Amino acid sequence: MAKVIRIEIKDPLYQKERELRNEILLRPIGIPDFGWEMNDHISWHFVAMAESVLIGCVLLVPLDKNQNRGQLIQMAVESSWQGKGIGKLLVISLINFAKSNGLKEIEIHSRSEATSFYEQFGFKVYGDEFEEVGIKHQLLSLKI
After folding, report:
1. Which of 4, 19, 50, 123 would disulfide-bridge 140, Cβ 3.0–4.6 Å?
2. Residues 6+ away with beta carbon under 8 Å from 110
3. CATH, range 2-104
């Protein structure tokens, strides 16, 4: 059974998280390895573990100084674990963390084909579809 833990960038698991993000998210769309880490130092990092193997990750980036709003970014699940509830486990853990830490809103720039995944957690679509990193996206928000 998988479990989600929160890590800091000093944690040895951070390197495995970076590698997973490169493999699953960045390389397939032509972004250089480590090319989307500009907010890693201020983000909360969540990793899904199966035994001692990192199988998924997601970040929550604070969007304001008071940490009332955050953005869910860089969710990735190891290919062999996709479709087995790991993404759901990561999102639930992130939402629970946000609630317990007083955040009032979480937003996502979701790939358009993944929008329905986030809607099951109560996220709502705002605005028109837009292009980011060459891929169609939707802005979603969850009021907490």
Report:
1. 123
2. 117, 118, 123, 137, 138, 139, 140
3. 3.40.630.30
- Locate the DSSP E strands across 8-134: 44-50, 53-62, 69-77, 105-111, 124-132
Residue 31 per-residue DSSP state: P
| pLDDT, tens only, 72-119 | 999 999 999 999 999 999 999 999 999 999 999 999 999 888 899 999
Q: In the beta sheet, which residues pair with residue 131?
A: 136
DSSP secondary structure code for residue 127 in this structure: E
Phi-psi region of 63 (alpha: psi -120 to 50; beta: other; left: phi over 0): alpha
